User: What shape does this take?
Amino acid sequence: MILCFAIILFAVCSDQLTKWLAVIFLEGEADLLLWEGVLHFSFVRNKGAAFGMLQNQRWLFMVISTIAIGALLFYLIRWKPKNPWVRVSIAMIIGGGIGNMIDRVLLGYVIDFIYVRLIDFPVFNVADCFVTVGSGILITYLICDVVREIKQERRLRREEAELEAAEEKQNDGRED
Assistant: This one.
């Protein structure tokens, strides 16, 4: 659990630090070109959700985020998932969620500044990275877990079928 809280703290601190730096160096300035045409830093005030959807719905996002963060924290603390991938992914999602929640509460919007111009991807921030990567890890783990369960179920069925066939063969031998 200490690792989980360290990940949450790291996510929140790195997100808030990079947003603070974005305000200092990017607000009111032209894009900072890290790799021209590919990766830029561009200051954006996002009053919507992911990719700027649902603009000006601050209270809706705050309620949904609070419920999601609370539910994930409760799950993490109460059920203490045994798999480290699950714990790390949930901690990353919580940390990213808290990072963006701080902006919504204090500023009324979320500061975004990372712009992948190559694919014209919507501008995002470090908290979004934590939520996205954490979600990706969790989804990958869950898919792999389901596949493992399916394979295990198939193996058990095959073993049961082989056992039944062996028993039938043995019973057929006794009837002769």
User: Anything to note?
Assistant: Helices lie at 2-25, 58-79, 84-107, 126-175. The two ends are 64 Å apart (CA to CA). The mean pLDDT is 93.
